[in-house]
């Protein structure tokens, strides 16, 4: 609780935990990380600096940021045996399936950072997860396209390293485009943490049992994959592709309103934001910057803009408080940069790892922490006696 806000007592009964990391006001469209507005962080900070802020609670000095970035950089390589792990997957395996499997296996490679009661091991595990996620994500992409893995180049930035490992090839030098690097770094900032969303709650619940941090993050990745959550960016772009041209938008708006049609506008709506998602605002601005830099004109962006315009002025969506969320525009940008839709949620997981890790550390160091045990409202049969099969 800070003097800037009056803690809403109404949440005390339903809140799953207390946290100092991220504050969301769904009605005002406010998102703060350790008190700093997401718009200011997205415009002025870097993903490494926001990672330090989420983990440590304060913005770093220049030297602290350099030391943190160097520490993370030193953990970017993965155990060489891990590369063989990939070869067990089919080439057409979804990269999220690979990410779930490989991250879950990390505890089998890093036994010296699985003791959750050892502060030093918690720090190393946290740094390893943040550092290795880009390497593993890039390896998942390379494996899917049949290209060789590239080792990290630690002379590059965190995001530049990831771009090179993903799009570089051994046969020629890879030059990081600074505009693309900045745009992707900003997308990572927008996805870093988001209070107690489904995947973060999954990480906390898994961690409350004492499971090692690698297993907890793997659980978060599995939950994020769902199309109602992190899988929405992939689903939103597939929806825009299916709509194809602006003249078909009314057909899909009608479907979204039809109670008998399970179709939902992917990238619209939010459990908490009932006004607008401040991240979507930054995302839409970033689309224009990337498109200008790459000199691309993607008709899907026109469909996205017109879909947003129509939906925002439709009484149904206004009444239901439905508007674009963080996933609506991210796919258009990632597609323009060159990522296939199957990699969109992988990038979400890459960025959200720092939030999951920070939330896990906050949970595991809470002296009052107990194993999570949600209860239920039982609506099944009352007690009854067993009936032998001969009498049924
Ligand atoms: C993320 O929690 C987080 O913080 C998540 C996240 C993060 O950073 O971690 O922000 C990331 O997951 C963003 C959300 C990405 N998901 C999508 O874009 C998928 C499409 N959106 C919907 O599935 C839905 O909006 C949810 C799940 C995101 C939120 O649903 P709610 O708030 O629980 O609302 P609801 O499902 O109860 O729906 C309320 C009404 C319903 O109509 P009624 O039954 O009241 O008549 O709104 C309708 C719904 O039918 N509705 C939609 C809709 N979303 C809700 N109708 C059409 N299209 C939609 N997208």
UniProtKB/TrEMBL annotation:
InterPro entries: Citrate_synth-like_lrg_a-sub (IPR016142), Citrate_synth-like_sm_a-sub (IPR016143), Citrate_synthase (IPR002020), Citrate_synthase_AS (IPR019810), Citrate_synthase_bac-typ (IPR024176), Citrate_synthase_sf (IPR036969), Citrate_synthase_typ-I (IPR010953). GO terms for molecular function: citrate synthase activity. The chain crosses the membrane at residues 328-351. Residues 371-392 are annotated as: Disordered. Keywords: Acyltransferase, Membrane, Transferase, Transmembrane, Transmembrane helix, Tricarboxylic acid cycle. CDD domains: EcCS_like. The keyword Transferase applies. It holds the Pfam family Citrate_synt. Pathway: Carbohydrate metabolism; tricarboxylic acid cycle; isocitrate from oxaloacetate: step 1/2. Gene3D superfamilies: 2.20.28.60, Citrate Synthase, domain 1, Cytochrome P450-Terp, domain 2. It comes from the Bacteria. It catalyses: oxaloacetate + acetyl-CoA + H2O = citrate + CoA + H(+). Belongs to the citrate synthase family. NCBIfam families: cit_synth_I (TIGR01798), PRK05614.1 (NF004126). PANTHER family: CITRATE SYNTHASE. This is Citrate synthase. It comes from Sphingomonas longa.
């Amino acid at each position: 609780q800070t003097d800037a806000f009056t803690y809403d007592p109404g949440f005390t009964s339903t809140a799953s935990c207390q946290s100092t990391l991220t504050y969301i006001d769904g009605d005002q469209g406010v998102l703060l990380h350790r008190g700093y507005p997401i718009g200011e962080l997205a415009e002025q900070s870097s993903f490494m600096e926001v990672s330090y802020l989420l983990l440590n609670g304060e913005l770093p000095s220049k030297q602290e940021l350099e030391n943190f970035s160097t520490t993370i950089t030193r953990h970017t390589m993965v155990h060489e045996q891990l590369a063989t792990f990939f070869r067990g997957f089919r080439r057409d395996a979804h990269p999220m399936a690979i990410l779930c499997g490989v991250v879950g296996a990390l505890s089998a490679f890093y036994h010296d950072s699985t003791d959750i009661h050892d502060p030093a091991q918690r720090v190393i595990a946290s740094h390893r997860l943040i550092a290795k996620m880009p390497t593993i994500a890039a390896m998942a992409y390379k494996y899917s396209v049949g290209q060789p893995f590239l080792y990290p180049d630690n002379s590059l930035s965190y995001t530049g390293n990831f771009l090179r490992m993903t799009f570089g090839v051994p046969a020629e030098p890879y030059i990081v485009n600074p505009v693309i690097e900045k745009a992707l770094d900003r997308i990572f900032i927008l996805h870093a943490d988001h209070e107690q969303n489904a995947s973060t709650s999954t990480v906390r619940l898994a961690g409350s049992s004492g499971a090692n941090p690698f297993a907890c993050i793997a659980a978060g990745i599995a939950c994020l994959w769902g199309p109602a959550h992190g899988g929405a960016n992939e689903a939103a772009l597939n929806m825009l592709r299916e709509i194809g041209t602006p003249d078909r938008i009314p057909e899909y708006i009608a479907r979204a309103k039809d109670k008998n049609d399970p179709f939902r506008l992917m990238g619209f709506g939010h459990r908490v934001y009932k006004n607008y998602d401040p991240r979507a605002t930054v995302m839409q601005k970033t689309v224009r910057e990337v498109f200008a830099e790459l000199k691309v004109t993607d008709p899907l962006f026109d469909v996205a803009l017109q879909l947003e315009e129509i939906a925002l002025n439709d009484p149904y969506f206004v009444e239901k408080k439905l508007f674009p969320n963080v996933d609506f525009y991210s796919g258009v940008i990632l597609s323009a940069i060159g990522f296939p839709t199957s990699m969109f949620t992988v990038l979400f997981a890459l960025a959200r790892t720092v939030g999951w890790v920070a939330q896990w550390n906050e949970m595991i160091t809470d002296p009052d922490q107990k194993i999570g045990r949600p209860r239920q409202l039982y609506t099944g049969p009352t007690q009854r006696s067993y009936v032998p099969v001969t009498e049924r």
